[in-house]
Each structure stands twice: as structure tokens, then as C-alpha cells.
Design goal:
408 residues, alpha/beta, 16 helices
């Protein structure tokens, strides 16, 4: 059994003022949060802390600057309040005078959500933990609290101020989501399987997907590719795919940053990579499909094609273990959910050991009426889940560990 070397909330004295980092980053459509799965998980930690009469201020993020999902957390406070069945106050400030005044008024049993931490200078980009500990965000907020609790396992791979800065300057503990996700996901790589192990790899972030193949080389036997990595792999294989067309900015910059790695992965692991045979696109408001061979990209593709989906489902059915990282298509649009849902349904119908990773993919399970109990584990983490699977260190975990495994 995997053991942890960090302190948990079991070791906290009651009635303290706590700064708690959670991850309620969610899909957003027209400015409205579409999924509350992460809220429900963190509510378990918060209820436990409230039962011990702690006063809580929450740090969280939503989206990234420049993205449509980069919005205020005001509605997040209301969603969290529904799960906690108690009021969650919100302040449209993170570490300015308004935030500090609201924190100063906190009493036992109170919950306060601070504004989107990614709106603050110093939160991004990735930097060493010691530099993050010196940011104005950390230096201003830390003195206002007795301790810091990190419950945001899904961003434990990010060296951002709200993740790695506070443990450098104050007592830090792991919340229940952090503790349970880390223990479960780390244990995956310690399992051994006699049969085939398959990884379905999709999503929109090449930086999270491309290196995965090399990281899990010793764990996974075959890879089913979709999403951005699926198209970029076709481009590397010589097909006229994986390009931006007018009005899109999804592929070209990712190709420029990762093309050498993609080509290396195809050359090194080509016999274990299953590439797309067909793709789905929109035509006259409905789903249409085309094979990959001989096609010039003139439109956006939103899903793997039906032939590819059936082939991937067959591979899953024959596997002893299946891991999923990222959606295979734009499943939020029912016309383009076939690839993701057919593969997930095949996993659910099979007696295999299965882990579904990533908030968006987990959202698809509920959205299309699948039962999460048909999977061995549904993780709310994406990048952190893959890193734990491959044994790569998680900086957000390392800074919590004692004794001083990380120098801040």
C-alpha cells in the first residue's frame, strides 16, 4: 500500500484560521459553470474542517488569462454553498485590502472564497518554489492564517504560487482530496497486469498529452489517440491534418512547440500507437465523417470517426487494464460525443481495471448517463494523474512532504 510522507488535516488543532487551496476549475459555457463534480469532492474536506470549528478562506482558479473560461469565481461560491448547505461568502479580491478585511472578520464555521487566484500577478508562470514563496500574494496572505491546507491534487504538477509558495513560509497540510487522490493514483503504477494495458489519450493540451507516451512506456502496451494529439500525430505521419484553419488557433502553435517530440514518439513507438482512420466534422448542422486517406483539411474536426471509435472499443474490450486521459472529441456537443462515449461504454461493459482521469472526461460519464461505479476509479485530476501513473514527481506534493525534501 502506498504511504504518504506529508502531514494531513488529522494533525491540525481545532479552531484555526485556515487558507485552503481547492481546484474547482470547471467547463464553462456562455460564462456559466457546467460541471460541479470537483465542488462535491472538495465539500467533503471542507465539511470535515468545519466540524472542527475552523474558519476557512479558499483559494481557487478558473481558466487561464486569454481563455473564455477565465472568469470570476462569484458563481463558484454559490455552487459550493449548495454542496456545503451553508453560506459561502465571496469577495472580488484575492490579497488586497478588501480580501484582508474579509479574512480578518472570519469566525469559526465561516467560509470565504477569494477571487480567481490566476488574476493575480505572481501566481503564474511556473517557477521554483522559493521564488513563489517570495511573491506578494504569498507574503501578504500567509500572516493572516494559522496554517495552509492544499486539497488541489489536480494541479499538484503546477509550480504556481498558490500551490508551492505557501508551504515555504507556513505550516502546510494535505486535505482529503489531495491525500486520497495521491494515494490511489500512485498505487496504480505499483500494480502489475498479466494482460494488455491500454491508454486512451486525447484532450486539447499537447503539452499534457505528448510526453505521456514516453512516461508510461513501461506501464502501457498500446495507445489509442484522439483529440489534439490524434490530429498532430496524423500530421507527423504525413497526412494533411493537424493544421489551423481560418478562425482557429488550436494546432499550429502546438505543432511548432512539439513537432520534434511527436515525430520521435511516432518513430519510437509507432507499432504501439493506434492512429485515427476517420474523423467527424459538421456539415449543414449535422455530423459528417471522412476517412483520413487523401483528405485535405478544409474544416475543423470535432471527433474521431465511427470506424476509429469501433476499433478503439474493440481494443478496450480485449484489455486487462485501461487508463483514459482526456476526451477523444468535443463530447459536450451531442453530435460529436460518439468517440468518447463509445470508448467509455466499452470500458464500463468490460471486467477490466479502469481509471478515468481528467475533469472533462469525468464530466462525460455523468453527462451521458454512465455509472461511475462501472469504473475502478474516476479521478478529477488530469496532468497530475498521468504524472503519478508514470512515477514523475509532483511538486505540489513534494512541498508538503516532511522532513525538508524540498528546499524553499
Amino acid at each position: 500500500m502506498t504511504t504518504t510522507t506529508f502531514s494531513t488535516i488529522d494533525e491540525l488543532e481545532p479552531e484555526q484560521r485556515l487558507l485552503v487551496r481547492i481546484d474547482v476549475n470547471a467547463p464553462v459555457e456562455d460564462g456559466i459553470v457546467q460541471d460541479d463534480r470537483r465542488f462535491a469532492r472538495h465539500a467533503e474536506t471542507l465539511r470535515e474542517l468545519l466540524d472542527r470549528d475552523h474558519a476557512i478562506a479558499l483559494l481557487a482558479h478558473q481558466g487561464r488569462p486569454g481563455e473564455e473560461t477565465f472568469i470570476s469565481l462569484r458563481q463558484h461560491a454559490d455552487i459550493l454553498a449548495e454542496h456545503l448547505e451553508r453560506e459561502v461568502d465571496f469577495v472580488p479580491d484575492t490579497f488586497g485590502e478588501a480580501a484582508l478585511a474579509a479574512i480578518d472578520c472570519l469566525e469559526s464555521g465561516d467560509v470565504l472564497l477569494l477571487e480567481n487566484v490566476r488574476m493575480c500577478d505572481g501566481e503564474l508562470p511556473e517557477e521554483d518554489s522559493d521564488r513563489k514563496g517570495e511573491t506578494k500574494l504569498v507574503q501578504t496572505l500567509a500572516p493572516a492564517f494559522d496554517a495552509y491546507v492544499d486539497d488541489a491534487y489536480s494541479v499538484a504538477h503546477r509550480s504556481h504560487a498558490s500551490i508551492v509558495g505557501f508551504p515555504c513560509v507556513m505550516d502546510a497540510y494535505a486535505g482529503r482530496v489531495m491525500e486520497r487522490e495521491y494515494t490511489a493514483n500512485t498505487a496504480i503504477r505499483e500494480r502489475s497486469f498479466d494482460g494488455t494495458v491500454t491508454l486512451a489519450l486525447g484532450g486539447t493540451k499537447a503539452e499534457d498529452s505528448i510526453p505521456v507516451i514516453e512516461r508510461v512506456d513501461k506501464t502501457v502496451d498500446q495507445f489509442c489517440l484522439g483529440g489534439v494529439i490524434g490530429e498532430l500525430s496524423l500530421r507527423a505521419a504525413g497526412h494533411d491534418m493537424g493544421y489551423d484553419i481560418e478562425g482557429t488557433e488550436l494546432f499550429d502553435h502546438q505543432w511548432e512547440a512539439h513537432q520534434e517530440t511527436i515525430k520521435h514518439v511516432l518513430a519510437e513507438y509507432g507499432d504501439r500507437l493506434h492512429l485515427l482512420k476517420d474523423l467527424a466534422y459538421e456539415a449543414n448542422g449535422t455530423r459528417a465523417e471522412t476517412t483520413v486517406e487523401g483528405v485535405t483539411k478544409e474544416t475543423s474536426y470535432f471527433d474521431i470517426g465511427s470506424e476509429t471509435a469501433r476499433r478503439y472499443a474493440d481494443l478496450v474490450t480485449e484489455s486487462e487494464a485501461v487508463f483514459v486521459k482526456g476526451a477523444l472529441g468535443v463530447f459536450e456537443d451531442e453530435r460529436f460525443a460518439e468517440g468518447t462515449t463509445e470508448v467509455l461504454s466499452a470500458i464500463a461493459d468490460t471486467e477490466c481495471f479502469s481509471i478515468i482521469g481528467g475533469g472533462d472526461t469525468a464530466h462525460a460519464i455523468g453527462l451521458y448517463g454512465l455509472d461511475k461505479d462501472d469504473f475502478s476509479r474516476v479521478s478529477i485530476a488530469g496532468g497530475a494523474y498521468v504524472r503519478a501513473l508514470s512515477g514523475e514527481p509532483l511538486i505540489g506534493v513534494e512541498v508538503l512532504e516532511r522532513p525538508d525534501s524540498v528546499s524553499c
